[in-house]
Design goal:
This protein is an alpha+beta fold. 24% of the residues lie in helices and 24% in strands. Strands 10, 13, 16, 17, 18, 19 and 20 form a 7-stranded mixed β-sheet that branches. A 5-stranded mixed β-sheet has the order 3-6-8-1-9, with no helix packed on it. Strand 14 (289-291) and strand 15 form a beta hairpin.
């Protein structure tokens, strides 16, 4: 029984297909898996393969045609079989558009009048993922499609080196697209083994996890970031270290500047206690110190009343005690504001989780050099990013912003810290 081969939907969004190559003609014997045409879809050029065995009785499409879904491509059946009913199926034409830009001519089985539809099988070709096995072209003649020959000439590819994947080893467009003249490099496969080890959670880590989880989940955090010009602070540190016996770090200067700024804007020096808000009149600065098991926060008490040198000596002593795990309980209690500095690790900017009972924590990044405008001229400027994490239950955005403005002015004019 003759079968009509029609264009199927070869991609999920395909509405029409362009016939880039046509590999069949009337009288050809075909079998399932043979490539009938190369169809250019909206996503790729794909081979249209046959699902049937038989003789090509009629070819309706030609190279260069643009076909709609279900347009007739060819009719396949037994040699000499009548297929006129498939050509003149009026009811099918209402649902299946005729071949665009092509007049159907019946050469092998001419007919001059229309006939009624017979119950003959209609086949719609759908795309397949695999192609038929490639045959080796003969030495005396290379089978190649016209389009592939044109591409090979344009790219300078020797067709004799290309293995065809079309019918009987025919070289088609896709063979040239995947062809590489370079020898394939064999890369040995890497075989890995999954492994892991588990470590008991220390009491310190359990406490850290509990406190930070309670803080992050209980306090509605919001974050404010400001950029500070540290040129004057860099100069001040150099001058101090030239005259003081104990070396001063940038973190010492930041601690002093924070304490100084809190005194100017005490609204950030507070705690949320549920039914009340505690506004602390003293300033105790907690400084986060990384240790093997996690993080400890020793406290520099009454930081606003101490000099930069006094803060430097005390900070070094507390950090050494923390790393050696010799901090006394009273050295880790009473903080009203906390500073976390990751600048020494090259981190330029980050956000920190509030350290209860504080309402704020300041994240300090690394000092970086970048171009900036100074007195109308482009110069290399030392910049520092500061990010303030606030508990929105007690500190509002304007309050936090005002504090950062004061802190920025203090660090950019650090001489005030010496008064």
């Amino acid at each position: 029984m003759a079968e009509a081969i029609r264009l199927g939907r070869m991609t999920d969004t395909m509405e029409e297909g362009f016939v880039a190559e046509l590999s069949i003609k009337v009288g050809d014997k075909i079998k399932a898996g043979d490539t009938l045409a190369e169809i250019e879809t909206d996503k790729a050029t794909l081979p249209l393969e046959s699902y049937s065995n038989g003789v090509v009785l009629h070819v309706a499409a030609k190279k260069g045609d643009t076909l709609k879904i279900n347009d007739l491509i060819a009719i396949v059946g037994k040699e000499g079989e009548d297929f006129s009913s498939l050509l003149n199926d009026q009811s099918s034409q209402k649902e299946v558009p005729a071949v665009s830009n092509a007049k159907q001519e019946v050469k092998s089985e001419p007919t001059s009048e229309k006939v009624e539809v017979s119950s003959q099988k209609v086949e719609v070709i759908e795309p397949v993922a695999s192609s038929s096995p490639a045959a080796t072209p003969s030495d005396d003649r290379i089978k190649v499609s016209p389009l592939a020959r044109s591409i090979a000439k344009e790219k300078g590819i020797e067709l004799a080196k290309v293995k065809g994947s079309g019918e009987e080893g025919r070289i088609v467009k896709r063979d040239l697209e995947t062809f590489s003249a370079s020898p394939k490099v064999s890369i040995p496969a890497f075989v890995g083994q999954e492994s892991f080890h588990e470590v008991r959670v220390s009491q310190m880590r359990k406490t850290i996890a509990k406190r930070l989880s309670e803080s992050k989940n209980g306090a509605p955090h919001f974050y404010l970031t400001i950029d500070v010009n540290m040129d004057n602070a860099v100069s001040l540190r150099t001058q101090l270290n030239n005259v003081l016996p104990a070396k001063v770090s940038f973190n010492d200067i930041v601690i002093k500047a924070v304490a100084f700024s809190i005194r100017q804007n005490p609204s950030v020096n507070c705690s949320w206690l549920g039914d009340t808000i505690r506004y602390n009149e003293h300033i105790h600065i907690g400084m986060a110190v990384a240790v093997d098991d996690g993080l400890l926060v020793p406290v520099i008490k009454f930081a606003d009343g101490k000099t930069v040198q006094q803060i430097s000596v005390e900070a070094k002593s507390l950090a050494a005690h923390a790393i050696a795990k010799k901090l006394l309980p009273e050295e880790m209690q009473g903080n009203t504001f906390t500073i976390s500095n990751l600048g020494m690790f090259g981190i330029e900017e980050f956000t920190a989780i509030i350290n209860p009972p504080d309402a704020c924590i300041l994240a300090v990044g690394a000092i970086r050099q970048e171009p900036g405008i100074v007195e109308g001229q482009v110069k290399i400027v030392n910049k520092l990013k500061l990010t303030l994490s606030c508990d929105h239950r007690v500190v509002d955005g304007a309050t936090g912003a005002k504090f950062l403005q004061i802190l920025k002015h203090t660090l950019e004019n650090p001489v005030s810290l010496l008064i």
